[in-house]
Design brief:
The protein is α/β, with parallel strands linked by helices. It has one domain. It contains ten helices and nine strands. β7 and β8 form a beta hairpin. α1 packs across α2, α2 packs across α4 and α7 crosses α8. It starts with 17 loop residues before the first strand and ends with a strand.
């Protein structure tokens, strides 16, 4: 299915950040409801989910986006190999949970964030060129939608992972049962961690995920709901709860992470 893409206008100077999750972006592209993501901010975790970087069956990356692509890389001849380009030039993130949960390795958080924010459709096209033609077109349509909406993408950083680990620990200590695939629960906490930092000086976090909405509520000052769209607001001088980053329980438990 091809979508009609209309370019968003430039954001107003000084506008507070509006952070959205994967479902909000997906609904906006499909036109399910009249809700735009123009000038919104997403995390690289949302970009990973929306742009299908990970094979949901194997857990392995389907393609790689380099952290920085040179002109030489851009003008390589057409890729005829079976594997993806840029494997060796993509950033890598290793998340380890000391055997409590399986370790996770992801690639291209910085790469996809830069490509989305810069609107680098050419580079994204090279990254997905090895995929079946229909799949490459679908992903390129999705990427083009983000670009047309002037979506800004924030890469995962150490501060986000540390907060997400604390959020996961607090969640599990409360007796919450993680989603069937622990990775889904972790992704929710990574998305929330980026949102909390991005809107710390006043702004909005939007989600259509009921569970994520429930988990996010204590960390914002107010909440409103329009259909299944939940909007959280954090005031410039916030009284909302903050994750206890002084809690290092995840370190004592052997939870680690490493960027490369």
């Amino acid at each position: 299915m091809r979508y009609v893409i209309v370019e968003a206008e430039e954001p107003e100077p000084g506008a507070p950040p509006r952070v959205t999750d994967t479902q909000v972006v997906s609904y906006a592209m499909k036109g399910v409801e009249d809700h735009s993501v123009a000038n919104a901010t997403i995390s690289s975790t949302v970009a990973h989910e929306f742009l299908g970087i990970r094979d949901l069956t194997t857990g392995k990356p389907r393609y790689f986006v380099p952290t920085g692509a040179s002109l030489t890389q851009r003008h390589l001849p057409r890729h005829h190999g079976r594997g993806p380009r840029f494997r060796g030039s993509a950033d890598r993130l290793h998340l380890d949970f000391d055997n409590t949960y399986p370790s996770i390795v992801e690639h291209s958080h910085r790469g996809i964030a830069r490509a989305v924010t810069d609107g680098d459709i050419e580079l994204f096209g090279l990254a997905v060129q090895h995929l079946p033609a229909a799949e490459a077109r679908k992903l390129t349509d999705r990427f083009s939608f983000l670009v047309s909406m002037r979506v800004r993408c924030l890469p995962l950083m150490s501060s986000h992972i540390e907060v997400a680990y604390v959020l996961v620990k607090e969640l599990l200590d409360s007796g919450f049962a993680a989603k069937g695939d622990f990775r889904n629960t972790l992704n929710d906490m990574l998305i929330l961690a980026v949102a909390l930092e991005a809107v710390s000086a006043g702004g909005v976090f939007e989600t259509r995920d009921k569970l994520l909405g429930t988990l996010a509520r204590p960390y914002f000052d107010s909440m409103s709901q329009h259909g299944d769209l939940i909007r959280f607001v954090r005031n410039p001088v916030s009284r909302a709860r903050r994750p206890n980053r002084d809690s290092k329980g995840y370190i004592n438990a052997g939870w680690r992470y490493q960027f490369r």
